[in-house]
């Protein structure tokens, strides 16, 4: 049965890729992509790889030109840049849209949300994908293609150690999205800054601590070289997903067959980012354990519990005031409960050695 499904899927892909060649008449469509990334793995393994896969599966009929942060519009305004037609499409992270609609945090990653594997299951085995597309269309008037699952992040790099809930009190933290509202419930003062300002803010001690990404990205940035403490695990962001959003007028000009291939490329890039970020993070973490001057701290269970409780309280507040949030939150929570049995018969990655 499984082989039949795989064979059918392969046949569909072959048909989609081959069909336009019969016409031999379609011109190349070039699309501009805005991103919030000035460099690093989310640009290279994420946005650039999606563009490469789209060009490959469409046989060169669709070409995406990827631009780093600030080139086509403000780094934190990628969605707005695409809405206005300044960019044809964008490589977006929902967390940067949370000021418009807090539902974005449920897709972009939040303390009570899925890890990378759970996000992919929710998207493709549950209702996540359809909810995401409907939400982006309804709230932002853009077409959404999930196109990358990110790593579990380092909890923070800081100038002072954090182990317990008491250690968070009075901490000035650079963060974004849901954690920017949840952390203050635990006594934290939060500051939202674009990626280009994070390193200097930590180095000059404008903030006491920052959160950014996983070991791979953070080692590239050098955060462990300028702050003496690194806290784990990533309570604030167990996982997240990026989406490739397209201006609706631009989307309408793309032939339906190539639209389907662009969506397929998103699913393919989900796998490549999952594997690519994991490979990068594992290598970086081993290097940091040997060479980093920072002290690595695993936070106490009391802090894990406190973050979970504060996150649940925040989510309940949002659900009471926002119908989209309520709809997505209830569906996501229900799905996560439905797969709890995985922990009973499967080993967690890396847990046996």
UniProtKB/TrEMBL annotation:
Binding positions (substrate): 153, 174, 211
Any Pfam family hit: DctP
PANTHER family: EXTRACYTOPLASMIC SOLUTE RECEPTOR PROTEIN, PTHR33376
InterPro entries: DctP_fam, SBP_TakP-like, TRAP_DctP_sf
Segment forming the signal sequence: 1-25
Record GO terms (molecular function): metal ion binding
GO cellular component, as recorded: tripartite ATP-independent periplasmic transporter complex
Swiss-Prot/TrEMBL keywords: Metal-binding, Signal
GO process terms (BP): transmembrane transport
Annotated binding of Na(+), by residue: 212
Domain of life from the UniProt record: Bacteria
Entry keyword annotation includes Signal: yes
Name recorded for this polypeptide: C4-dicarboxylate ABC transporter substrate-binding protein
Native organism taxonomy: Bacteria, Pseudomonadati, Pseudomonadota, Alphaproteobacteria, Hyphomicrobiales
